[in-house]
Amino acid sequence: MSFGICLISAGLARPSAIGSLLEKCGLSVWTPSSPDADDGYIYERAICIVLDMPGESGVRTLQLLRDYGVNTPALLIVDNGYAPGPDELKNAWALDVIPRAAGPREILHWIESMCITQKLLQRLHAVQGGDGVLLSA
Questions:
Q1: For 45-55, what is each residue's pLDDT tens digit?
Q2: Residue 109 near residue 89, CB atoms below 8 Å
Q3: Domains of the chain: which residue ranges?
Q4: DSSP for 70-84?
Q5: Residue 125: which residues within 8 A CB-CB, separation 6 or more?
Q6: Distance from the CA of 109 to the CA of which of 4, 6, 51, 82 falls in 20 to 30 A?
């Protein structure tokens, strides 16, 4: 199974370029319009949710996902000059808030760390036999 990133982008003056950037890196990009979106598959199976939305929309959407029990790590891409305060992020549990002008490297550093973490967790799960019992390595 390939690694999937859930990309939520809406309301932008220009389409988000993050999806094509992630696909060029060999990652699957799932969006709310993906076929499996209706059952929450893209949110729970993604290694990371990237929200690229204007104004407070990204923070509000992430808070809504958290209210629904989606605990997948998330990155917020925000308008240049917008810095959500601690009260806004209180229950959002975002890995980072990145200005849209920051460029692809900062986003890719976080995505890379999530991919590495996911690979390590999969190996640990395989070594433990899937039921938490440590098998001989």
A1: 888 899 999 98
A2: no
A3: 4-127
A4: ----EEEEE-TT---
A5: none
A6: 82
